Amino acid sequence: MEDRFQKIKESYDNIVNKKSKFIFFVPNIQVPSAIMYEIYVHANVLKEDGYDVQMMLENAQCEKPNWFESSLTELPHLFADKHNLTIRPEDFLMIPDIYTNIMEQVKNITCEKIILSFSHDYALNALVPAMYWKDLGINKVLTSSERLKTIAQESFGIGMDIQSYNIGIPDYFKPSAKPKKLVITFLTRNGNDLTKVVKMFYYKYPQYRFVSFEDLSGTPREQFAQKMGESFATLWIDRIASFGTVALESMKSGNILIGLVPDIQPDYLKEGNALWTYDLYNMPDILAQAINMHLQDLPAFDELKKSMEETISKYTVKESKKQLKAIYDKYIEDRIKLLETAIPANNTVEA
Amino acid sequence: MRKQLTIIIPIHKFSPEISTYLTKAVTSVANQRDKKLIPSLLIVYHSDIKSEINEFIKSNDFGVKVDLLENKQKNDYCSQINTAVDIVKTEYFSILEFDDQISDMYVKNFIDYKTAYPNSSVFLPITVEVSENNEFVRYSNDGAWSKSIIQIGELGQLTLQTLTEYTYFLVTGGIFKTQDFIDIGKYKTNIKLTFNYELLLRFAFNNMDIQVMSKLTYLHTNNRVDSLFYTYQNTLIQKEIGHWFDVAKREYYFKKERETREFFVTE
């Protein structure tokens, strides 16, 4: 018993002295993904705060991502099939919502477990019906928008501590120093939707045949930002997006965004900050509207720009980090309080 | 801005119809959205219409100062422009046909492009061509943004290769670096029909950068009755058209105007 209390006391001291480990499980997503990027952002907030942060990849064949700033991936990377971890009560496991298998495996490990939930679809796919995260011993969830937080609360909410923060869009997303090119960058999940829209557009508006489209899928992040900054508009079609950072990236790049409203309506969506539509078959007309707005410098674009700037001002890296730090500080504080309650009242342990 | 850009309007005839067009052209210059960006305006006219032009200027207040230059010599379009450029004091000049108009963002967009491309010699606008009844005909210079046309260089940039394959680019509304225009020999007055095309080829051949701005800032009246190109369309036969394109492609190597034979029907 004393040994147990001794260990709790050690864990308590470790967590108070910032000796906790934060292990982030990294999904094996082969293509550039906002989810993976955000995981590394979280990891770096903690690293900057002086914590020991480690990234756990699925297996030795997985590589650390190389499509965004290498400064974010300068962290120890471990492989789940090769490395054995010693997890102590003062440690934290950060588990993406798709990994219910990992949640099962760590269910009986005494430490804090937090679910990173950036995609409601992934969460639903990973859970079997009537299975709750609470059943897996986890009651803390961190999401990337108020909307996702609300959905999580409504779906899994009973007894859960669900937090959200604003994603930060890096400053390398910006308008090009040179005048915008007559190119529309696009990112779509479904190639058929894109083909339909572009073909309909060119059939209906042959006079705009000189405007070209450029696919940003799979492009490394900084190059992605450069191309976006050079183009004058961005076309976004992704019905199942849970948040859609590309819309904010487009606004930060000074682009006219032509967006199909996703099933989960983003927090930042509002009339006037982009050319939004619920109807895919409307998009050719909206593309023509955007082109005209750019070609003729219509005053409507000035209004749109003001609204874009107002929207994007809430999604800075500085603010995002501040919010994340506050959330993680609270998690640590909660863990400290929990360990405190487990320490005997006289705070001593007999040898 | 008056010290950076001069807009030249060449005019060799006058009539009530031309007066209406000219009023719109001059007004469009004055109507820049940012009033600090109104450029210098120079109307070069032939001596034949001296009194009409003076009366026109005297009886109208366009909100912009209009300088006048009387051209006592040849009154063809190219000669008018060359004469005007000789007295231009600004770093850049552009050509506005009297039956055309510029947009209220013409100068602002030029400034953006000049800032981004300080070494470029020519900035062409995307032009909307309309009929005399103001009906849309087509866009011009848009080909510079087409991926199927621009195989070498950047989108928006006209290279010699592009120009030798694609001939339809409009020069009116284009903004030229004055000294570069002079250095490459100005307009060749002995070339009919393809004098603009030959000029662009000569710029490109001499490694002078030509940018097509991604903005619609010029409105061109296409084939107005009695206009120069309307006359060409109605008087030149197909072989003669081909002759002038051959001349353009032969002469752009030379800065100085060379003797060029007129086209004769041999059959």
Overview of the molecule:
The complex is a heterodimer of chains A (351) and B (267). With 351 residues, chain A is α/β, with parallel strands linked by helices. Chain A is built from 11 helices and 12 strands. Chain A has helices spanning 2-16, 34-48, 100-105, 120-126, 146-156, 191-204, 221-230, 245-252, 283-295, 299-312, 317-342, and strands spanning 21-25, 52-57, 77-79, 92-96, 112-117, 140-143, 161-164, 181-188, 212-215, 231-237, 256-260, 275-277. In chain A, strands 3-2-1-4-5-6-7 form a 7-stranded parallel beta sheet, with helices on both faces. In chain A, α2 crosses α11 and α6 crosses α9 (283-295). The mean pLDDT of chain A is 91. Chain B has 267 residues and is α/β, with parallel strands linked by helices. In chain B, 34% of the residues lie in helices and 21% in strands. Chain B contains 9 helices and 10 strands. In chain B, strands 1, 2, 3, 4, 5, 6, 7, 8, 9 and 10 form a 10-stranded mixed beta sheet that branches. In chain B, α7 packs parallel to α9 (238-251). The radius of gyration of chain B is 18 Å and the shape is globular. The N and C termini of chain B lie far apart (55 Å). At the A-B interface, β8 of A face α4, β7 and β10 of B.
Globally, the shape of chain B reads globular
Q: What would you call the quaternary organization?
A: heterodimer
**What is the count of DSSP helices of chain B, taking H or I runs of 4+ residues?**
9
Main sheet of chain A: which strands, in order across?
3-2-1-4-5-6-7
Average pLDDT, all residues of chain B: 92
- Along the chain, the helix and strand elements of chain B come as EHEHEHEEHEEEHEHHEHH
Radius of gyration of chain B: 18 Å
Largest sheet of chain A at a glance?
7 strands, parallel
Shape of chain A: elongated
Class derived from helix and strand content of chain B: alpha/beta
Share in β-strands of chain A: 15-25%
Number of strands of chain B: 10
How much is the radius of gyration of chain A in Å?
23 Å
Taking pLDDT < 50 over at least 5 consecutive residues as the criterion, the unreliable ranges of chain A are none
Proportion in helices of chain B = 25-40%
The computed structural class of chain A is alpha/beta
**What is the helix/strand order of chain A?**
HEHEEEHEHEHEEHEHEHEEHHH
